[in-house]
Amino acid sequence: DSGVTQTPKHLITATGQRVTLRCSPRSGDLSVYWYQQSLDQGLQFLIQYYNGEERAKGNILERFSAQQFPDLHSELNLSSLELGDSALYFCASSDPGRTIYNEQFFGPGTRLTVL
Amino acid sequence: AQSVTQLDSHVSVSEGTPVLLRCNYSSSYSPSLFWYVQHPNKGLQLLLKYTSAATLVKGINGFEAEFKKSETSFHLTKPSAHMSDAAEYFCVVSPRGGGYNKLIFGAGTRLAVHP
């Protein structure tokens, strides 16, 4: 158990809908990262937050957004969903104060299916 | 720019025989290197990380990886495969320092272990 929790575990929805994925980092970790894992794109970095502020963006669509709250949990919002958004979404956390190597600890993921 | 190439998409071994999963990286400066494992329907677990303290890195479950700067390789090995090792393995690179950096994943190697 990495200490990172994600809810829900599974999400099934229809095209055009909006969903919210939630992540709680390991205790004390200030950085939260979101990744998308799909069959055709592999594992790709979406976005990073550090202590409530957006730190870096990767291949994140404009229909997607995220935020990190004062208690450090994070939410990833996906809107106007398309079939191609079906994927496994992972949250990871790290604490830059404890390591220079940037190892990240992953949650179990949320499997999103868009029908 | 950094990148990582996993040279085999699938590796099949018999139980009790050695495992070799190959990874080459590209980085303009000294990176952090990791191996993560993903068991079916599970999240990503950190197997080991390269910290520059030693070129041979020991991880969990009997896995090791050797960092070879001259070959820009970070191959993962295990002397004797176990059925429970069947999973997908990811070689990962990240800029070192600051702890603010995304992870860059290889495409993954699926390891099958046969009785």
Please explain how this structure is put together.
- The complex is a heterodimer of chains A (about 120) and B (about 120).
- Chain A is an all-beta fold and about 120 residues long.
- Chain A is about 0% helix and about 50% strand.
- Chain A has no helices and eleven strands.
- Chain A has strands at about 5, 10-15, 20-25, 30-40, 40-50, 55, 65-70, 75-80, 85-95, 105, 110-115.
- In chain A, strands 2, 4, 5, 6, 9, 10 and 11 form a seven-stranded mixed beta sheet that branches. A four-stranded antiparallel beta sheet of chain A has the order 1-3-8-7, with no helix packed on it.
- Chain A is globular.
- Chain A starts with a strand and ends with a strand.
- Chain B is mainly beta.
- Chain B is built from no helices and twelve strands.
- In chain B, strand 8 and strand 9 (about 75-80) form a beta hairpin.
- Chain B starts with a strand and ends with a strand.
- The model of chain B has no long low-confidence stretch (mean pLDDT about 90).
- Chains A and B meet through strand 4, strand 5, strand 9 and strand 10 of A and strand 5, strand 6, strand 10 and strand 11 of B.
Structural class of chain A: mainly beta
Rg of chain A (CA only)? 13 Å
Please summarize the sheet with the most strands of chain A.
7 strands, mixed
Structural class of chain B: mainly beta
Query: From N to C, what is the helix and strand string of chain B?
Result: EEEEEEEEEEEE
Averaged pLDDT of chain A, please? 93
Whole-number radius of gyration of chain B?
14 Å
Strand element count of chain A: 11
In angstroms, what separates the terminal alpha carbons of chain B? 41 Å
* Mean pLDDT rating of chain B: 91
Binned, the helix content of chain A reads under 10%
Report, as a whole number of angstroms, the end-to-end distance of chain A: 31 Å
Low-confidence stretches of chain A: none
The biggest sheet of chain B, with number of strands, parallel, antiparallel or mixed sense and barrel status, is: 6 strands, mixed
